[in-house]
Specification:
This protein has 262 residues and is an alpha/beta fold. It has two domains: 157 residues, Periplasmic binding protein-like II (D-Maltodextrin-Binding Protein, domain 2, 3-Layer(aba) Sandwich), CATH 3.40.190.10; 95 residues, Periplasmic binding protein-like II (D-Maltodextrin-Binding Protein, domain 2). Helix content is 43%, strand content 26%. The chain contains nine helices and twelve strands. Strands 1, 5, 6, 7, 8, 9, 10, 11 and 12 form a nine-stranded mixed β-sheet that branches. A three-stranded antiparallel β-sheet has the order 2-3-4, with helices on one face. A hairpin with a 3-residue loop joins strand 2 and strand 3. Helix 2 packs across helix 8 and helix 2 packs antiparallel against helix 9. The protein is globular. The relative contact order is 0.17. InterPro entries: Iontro_rcpt_C (IPR001320), Solute-binding_3/MltF_N (IPR001638). Keywords: Signal. It comes from Pseudomonas vancouverensis. This is Transporter substrate-binding domain-containing protein.
Length: 262
């Protein structure tokens, strides 16, 4: 007969082996399930022009949407775009509501603890936007004022960490620009590209303040995936590199941004 201690050791070994097999299966599951379904579900906010926004037909279009479509094409699957508020977008990924996030997400050490990243697929710097006649002339003047940020993004965290700002969070840029013009906020803090594109279209009179590298710098934006999916990560990385090499990326960037932002 087996001793009680030996039985415990066998049971523990069985559990450990099952966990290892489960982990190994999970590593291949995401790519395999995407290939089996012939579909990859990609999340973005849908409120971040020119990266993702609804057109007149209520379709989600923009730089991130086009990048998603091109990635899916190279992976041999169709793409389904899912819109969700940015502040809960990682939680939705971890809950398996979608397979990836293509939402102009800054790669940060904190986020890398929760998800893996493909890319960076483009780079952008922090910008402070004020009305043309604003008394705010430099980063030093950005204190004891109200700033608008996108809820949950890297600039939201940066603004709150300064400790001397009143931070108002928004779901998208259009509302921020309206409130800036109406005087409900004194400045907007966010990535440079969408602001410059938006005001070019609206003709809104603004002034741009670029922080020094120590407070802004150029940041890499990544495509977020659940951890322990090396095959999916490798597949998407190769698709991205192929797009960069064959000119597809540049065409998408020129269409939506007007310049190559890689």
């Amino acid at each position: 007969m087996l001793t009680k201690k030996l039985k415990c050791l066998i049971a523990a070994s069985t559990v450990a082996a099952a966990a290892l097999l489960s982990t190994s299966a999970a590593q291949a599951d995401d790519l395999k399930s995407i290939q089996d379904a012939k579909e990859i579900r990609i999340a973005m906010s849908g409120q971040y022009s020119p990266f993702s926004f609804a057109n007149e037909q209520n379709q989600i279009v923009g730089f991130d949407a086009s990048i998603s479509e091109a990635l899916a094409e190279r992976m041999g699957v169709k793409v389904t775009i899912i819109t969700t508020p940015f502040d809960g977008i990682i939680a939705g990924l971890l809950a398996k509501k979608y397979d990836a996030i293509v939402a102009s997400m800054t790669i940060t050490p904190e986020r890398q603890k929760a998800v893996d990243f493909v890319g960076p697929y483009y780079h952008a710097g922090r910008t402070i936007v004020v009305k043309e006649n604003s008394a705010i002339k430099s980063l030093d003047d950005l204190k004891d004022v109200t700033v608008g940020v996108t809820l949950g993004d890297a600039h939201d965290k940066w603004a709150r960490a300064r400790g001397n700002l009143k931070v108002r969070a928004y779901k998208g840029l259009p509302e921020m620009l309206v409130d800036l013009d109406a005087g409900r906020i004194d400045a907007i803090v966010m990535d440079s590209v969408p602001v410059l594109v938006a005001v070019k279209e609206t003709g809104q009179k603004i002034r741009v303040i670029t922080p020094p590298d120590s407070d802004g710098g150029v940041e890499g934006m990544g495509i977020a995936l659940r951890k322990n999916n090396p095959e999916l990560k490798a597949s998407m990385q190769k698709a991205l590199e192929d797009m960069l090499a064959d000119g597809t990326y540049e065409k998408i960037s020129m269409k939506w941004i007007g310049t190559d932002i890689r």
